[in-house]
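Risk mitigation, structural track. In case the binding assays with zinc ion fail to produce interpretable data, a predicted complex structure has been prepared as a fallback.
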Amino acid sequence: MSSTVHFLTTTHNPSLPFSPATAPRHLLRADRALFLIEKSKTINQLLQIHAALVRNGLEHHPMLNFKLLRSYSSLGRLDYSRVLFDRTHDPNVFFWTAIIHGHTVHGLHQQAFLLYSQMLTYGVEPNAFTFSSILKACSIEPGRALHSHALKFRFDSDAYVRTALLCVYARGGDVVSARRLFDTMPDKSLVSLTAMITCYAKHGDVDGARLLFDRLEVRDIVCWNVMIDGYTQHGRPNETLGLFRQMMSSNVKPDEVTILSVLSACGQLGALELGRWLHSYIKNNGIPFSVSVRSALVDMYCKCGSLEDAQLVFDRIINKDVVAWNTMIVGYSMHGLSQDALELFSRMCAMGIHPTDITFIGILSACSHGGLVLEGRAFFHSMKEKYGIEPRIEHYGCMVDLLGRAGLLDEAYELVQNMAIEPDSVIWGTLLGACRLHGNINLGENIAEFVIANGLANAGTYILLANTYAAAGNWNAVAKIRTAMKDIGVLKEPGCSSIEVHNKVHEFFAGDMKHLKSKQIYLMLEEMNGWLKAHGYTPQTDIVLQDIGEAEKEKIIAVHSEKLAIAFGLITTQPGTPIKIIKNVRVCTDCHTVTKLISKITGRKIIVRDRNRFHHFVDGSCSCGGYW
Ligand code: ZN
Ligand code: ZN
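Fallback model:
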């Protein structure tokens, strides 16, 4: 090729490492050479063949050079491909496409683009493969430009080009363009369908993805994984498990990707039995126990309330990476085992593992749960100073929580006001919660007004404020807040408690009568009430926000979802069996008191995971020490 191109090329070794002059001459025919190039497995073999080509006067053979160029690139020596390309006189579209493809595959996207524009400058028209190669490297904006090129060169109806374009739009989150392309595809390949499903799932429309998924006649493992993971990532673990069962009954064998998604779903649901089943499935079906799989098991066992199992799996990880350490640290922290979390952190640092931002979320929340103010402050400062990690909103959240619980409201408020990032509704909610806990109505009111006026209020903010007023008996203010919530359509997330019994997860909402065993459950509730009253329990009716009579309030709290789940656990499991409950929102003070008493009266260990943490209720007391 002409020498003008050279100034555009990247730095490279200008020669190939062989010396044809010194080697003995043997006759090599072009067809034999072609065969040898295709069979080559190492760079050395390729270099020997290349030398032989030169000796036999075949160094300008276009087909042989084309094959050599591709083979060098696929064996990892793009620099040799490049030398060969630069020496090619007047390269045709196949050469250009091969060198563009080589750069794309090696992640050199800018150079691939540069080559593409050079090719156009030389008057060489791209073909369908050029487009599908260059599109693999593309983000959305250059992708749109290439789309118009594809239209210009009339390759827009080529199936490969369309699929590659669809993938560009899908990756970039342009669901509309992706869908438009998809709908006009006469032949929808599995790749294009998978790309489209990924696009929906990644951008929130899991149901749209499911509709497409259900239309597929043939589904490969990638397709199943995309859909299963879509549900997990969007916090819809029940659907993950449903689809997983469907996959198993279609005789598709899960791989590591599937296992990671399903373990995560088990953790979200607290489905310990299914999690255990997966653990033995991994063992019995030769799925490698990679560090990721083991960490996912640790995470699942922690979230399902079985720290013992989590520890066993964690101890068996030989080359623990930072994700594995983080998972166990966060696990200890959510169970309120602050000292264990901090000890593990020291062990991790002693092993020379550099902590990440997630590590600090684990240890800061451990400090918060354990009321360790001094340690928390020190870790928060060391994060940036010693480890160079800029605190994120979650770290500030942990600090506000830590200071707020300890009653250091002014310090917490000051921290929020001086944050390097804009505080969000969670931070304000945490601060508001602390004001309520310590009865600081003035500060609480100020914060709530600010939060509501700045559009940062969520259902939690309103409820906290209403709780604060209700505790002070200011029913007018409570009523105003309830009206405001209705007017602007703030919805309170309904409390839901789930319990796994005999491999099935049972869900309960407050006052739920839908369960098949409802009659027995409510009889059990009455019996529980009898026990509680005998132990001097009085319902904490101040948490009910309606201005109604005491008896009405008592009726409302008596059927909170976790009480129904506990009653169900008591009637369906053997005496002495621990009861494990997963709650989607924070446990209320009344349910907390009731659970403590029930653990004492029945002698059962009751483990409740709420939105914030785990509560281990044993013999009348809770591991959270009343702070949650
Ligand atoms: Zn409750
Ligand atoms: Zn507790």
